[in-house]
Backbone:
């Protein structure tokens, strides 16, 4: 049963695959591209596809689950039916939708799709930085109005960026921004110096000093021209970007969120944009998606909205399937799985 063993969150996990295990794929209507490659593995006893409505009936007797319905929270409600589930693979980087008590406290191993989105998201962030600095939105607005109005724009090189989240996505962003001459700092679980990608990393809290006496965001936010949110959604980061956080930013600074919507308190951000407390925000994720048409974030000064697509480039679904097939082969061979989530933290460490 899924609860027969205690949670293992630090050591590499090798779930025991029985002979010809049953694989369940939870999807939202669209099957994984090339799913025939999954179906054709002769070592699998059965491959079953279901939507959330059929999850209760499909889970019993399942040994491995691919969550292809990317942000579905259906597994939490159906968890009592997961009597033999040993491994859950998420076709996402963030796994906050899977970190419910039943799964966290069980012996079921969770893996994610680390690495697939790093470069595309970093390119998106760099694009938004350049769009802000060179006022591309203003140029497009003027073009639609057929107005010729000369303006001066900003340099990118020499600006300070604070990237909150020092995992693979945050590090790829840091390297991309450093390459164009920006001064990049980081925000993470603990403060440290001499980091290969960030130099200085501050503790991601608003306390005056960190738990170990090191710097926190309270010291870094007032110096940053761009603040990039690239952290996982955990209890520690939920609601991190609130009125206090925004109040520490420069009035000329911009916020870019490519992580998870609930890290930002949207009502506080809307107020900050409306009052001009910060100069802009590029938002790819939101508290609730899709963003409703009545949200003020669509039209506030300096607000750039995109529909949770910063990491989605041509071929991304195929790459997700390739990664899953690699892990599936490891599972069937009894080898160590890639990208095992530390369930006590809610992300893959290291």
Residues:
């Amino acid at each position: 049963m899924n609860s027969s063993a205690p949670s293992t969150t630090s050591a590499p996990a090798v779930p025991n695959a029985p002979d010809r295990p049953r694989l369940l794929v939870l999807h939202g209507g669209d099957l994984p591209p090339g799913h025939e490659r999954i179906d054709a593995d002769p070592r699998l006893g059965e491959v079953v596809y279901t939507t959330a409505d059929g999850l209760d009936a499909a889970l019993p007797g399942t040994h491995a689950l691919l969550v292809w319905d990317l942000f579905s929270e259906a597994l939490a409600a159906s968890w009592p039916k997961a009597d033999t589930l040993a491994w859950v693979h998420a076709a996402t980087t963030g796994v906050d939708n899977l970190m419910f008590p039943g799964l966290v406290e069980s012996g079921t191993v969770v893996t994610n799709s680390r690495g697939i989105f790093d470069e595309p998201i970093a390119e998106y962030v760099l694009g938004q930085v350049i769009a802000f600095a060179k006022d591309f939105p203003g140029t497009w607005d003027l073009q639609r109005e057929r107005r010729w109005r000369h303006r001066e724009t900003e340099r990118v090189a020499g600006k300070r960026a604070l990237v909150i989240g020092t995992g693979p996505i945050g590090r790829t962003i840091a390297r991309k921004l450093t390459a164009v001459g920006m001064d990049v700092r980081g925000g993470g679980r603990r403060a440290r110096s001499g980091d290969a990608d960030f130099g200085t990393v501050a503790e991601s809290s608003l306390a005056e000093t960190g738990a170990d006496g090191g710097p926190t965001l309270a010291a870094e936010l007032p110096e940053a021209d761009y603040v990039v949110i690239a952290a996982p959604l955990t209890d520690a980061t939920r609601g991190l970007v609130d009125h206090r956080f925004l109040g520490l930013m420069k009035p000329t600074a911009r916020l870019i969120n490519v992580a998870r919507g609930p890290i930002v308190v949207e009502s506080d951000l809307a107020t900050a944009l409306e009052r001009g407390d910060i100069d802009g925000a590029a938002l790819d994720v939101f508290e609730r998606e899709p963003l409703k048409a009545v949200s003020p974030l669509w039209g506030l000064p300096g607000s750039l909205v995109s529909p949770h697509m910063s990491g989605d480039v041509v071929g991304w679904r195929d790459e997700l399937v390739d990664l899953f097939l690699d892990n599936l082969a490891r599972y069937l061979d009894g080898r160590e799985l890639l990208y095992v989530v530390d369930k006590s933290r809610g992300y893959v460490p290291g």
In short: The two ends are 29 Å apart (CA to CA).
